[in-house]
């Protein structure tokens, strides 16, 4: 099969083509088109097809990572949205919970109050009420009130409506009927229900998730529809799948209905690409380090499995989101991060970025502010004639000018100022990793750092040094690892149900029946996606807590019919997880099973690893030598005669000493003095400090 993965970043759109029959792989990068990202996607696909001499109609599948949903939330550029909710609960979206983002600050921004996803005047209430624990109807749905609310919202010009009833996670019938009425009155409206998006308790988080789904819904739906339409016009008849935040792909139709599932689309693909590459080199505990032009994304992988975000950790743009997500932390630090002095005279780098246009001064598009990329140029670490494999030249004079202006402002030399820029951005990145490791009881020294993205390999060794990490892995195609990751995953769908059962009296009959119903739901979706039922696998999990606790821990639940013995094993697994997370467990305390979860995996064709032996010698891989400047931690900036090496010509299985600059089309890898490096048989570049990598 012929597959294409395409990931849209802030600066570049990354593409990878593979023919699973021959194992052939080709990569491509094209500038992102911020005004209409689909234009860059289509142009990039067609350019890549021409390069590999394949007709667009021959492509079988396109996997896509997109930032449309994320940007709509972060930039607060969604649809005018309305809401229909249970009487008395109009202001749940505003009140939130007693926790504030900053507990002790009296001057703080509350995102859901300062930037409401749904304005209060567009929140309508209707009579209806269910009763826990079984969802018995206390008050029937007032259908006339729903119809009236729909007409008022239509007249107000809203583009999307969220239906959010108090106990809909117990029975979605009222929400489904209300949704049908709204569509009768307003067929062109994007209508979503909280139970369809996140059928879980916690009304604030569930309502907010549904509101966010509606807020971004029209924009995402229009984007996906436009992309599919233009693909058809250009002869691309391939199936289109979009990466979800859970690390699996979803059909275009699913994404159009539930765009909230794509909020971490690109970063999730990057983690998967990092896992795939590291597995080939025998690394299982990883810190994925994805640095692009605008941001750095941090993921944690333990025993080959990425960590999942819990209900207390899933936040996007300051809003809570109850949707399956990988645990990925993002900071504003990348190749386009701008260096400046703030009002108090402090030296800062980021989070403001030069973006795709004008970009760093070195790109020659009119950038007039010093960026991280410009600092690398000034220090001689980027080859101006071989950037993007020679497809783009860097304007070294422009970098010297903008960094020189900052140097005059801070009173340092040009090289010292450039080193200072990198020191600050590296410290910011290292601190972000500490927040996901040290602050969670994990020792980063027990992990390998997997560096990718256009800028990750430029900073990997220095960041690893700050954290005491001695092993760094750079994938074969680091600049497009997210695009590669898109081609390593299966279709993946999640189902969840709230149970509220206590270990002193589990209802195994209800649990087994609910798992069967959830599996039938997911199986039907995969059949609709034309997935062979024989290639589908399922994974169960549960959210458990001690009775009275505020949040849960997720543990695996075995397959098959559940009985007292299997549930005892689940309870024991929770106790071990609680002790690992909090340092203690309570053997005699009753445990509550809050939610059960089922994940379905539909197997699809994937990219295969390329094996290669590279060149014959280091001399044969040397393109040129030049002076590059490096600064040890806390030390001066010194010039080193440094070889510039073509990565594809590095001999496999041999180790060499730094410093070195390793060139390839999609990124540059920096090996500082004191580090060793070498290419392994799987195509990965390994770096180590003080020993063989």
Question: What do these coordinates show?
Answer:
- α1 crosses α8 (203-233).
- The mean pLDDT is 91.
- With 693 residues, the chain is an alpha+beta fold.
- The two termini are 35 Å apart.
- Among the domains are: 2-72 and 222-262, Nucleotidyltransferase, domain 5 (2-Layer Sandwich); 76-217; 491-602, Dna Ligase, domain 1; 618-689, no CATH class.
- It has 18 helices and 33 strands.
- The chain is globular and about 80 Å long.
- It is 32% helix and 27% strand.
- Strands 13, 14, 15, 18, 21, 22, 29, 32 and 33 form a nine-stranded mixed beta sheet that branches.
Summarize the structure.
The chain is α+β, with helices and mostly antiparallel strands and 693 residues long. It is built from 18 helices and 33 strands. Among the domains are: 112 residues, 2-Layer Sandwich (Nucleotidyltransferase, domain 5); 142 residues; 112 residues, Dna Ligase, domain 1; 72 residues, no CATH class.
Give the helices and strands, then pairings:
Blueprint (H helix, E strand, L loop, with lengths): L1 E7 L3 E8 L4 E8 L5 H15 L9 E5 L2 H7 L6 E6 L5 H4 L15 H4 L8 E4 L2 E3 L4 E4 L3 H13 L4 E5 L8 H13 L4 E4 H4 L5 H31 L5 E5 L5 E3 H6 L7 H15 L6 E6 L4 E7 L2 E2 L8 E2 L2 E2 L7 E4 L5 E5 L5 E7 L18 H7 L17 H15 L3 H23 L11 E5 L3 H12 L3 E4 L6 H6 L4 E12 L5 H21 L7 E11 L6 E5 L6 H19 L8 E12 L15 H4 E10 L5 E10 L9 E2 L2 E4 L4 E4 L3 E5 L5 E5 L4
Parallel strand pairs: 1-4, 4-11, 5-6, 5-9, 9-10, 13-21, 21-22, 28-30
Antiparallel strand pairs: 1-2, 2-3, 7-8, 11-12, 13-14, 14-15, 14-18, 16-17, 19-20, 22-33, 23-26, 24-25, 24-26, 27-28, 29-32, 30-31, 32-33
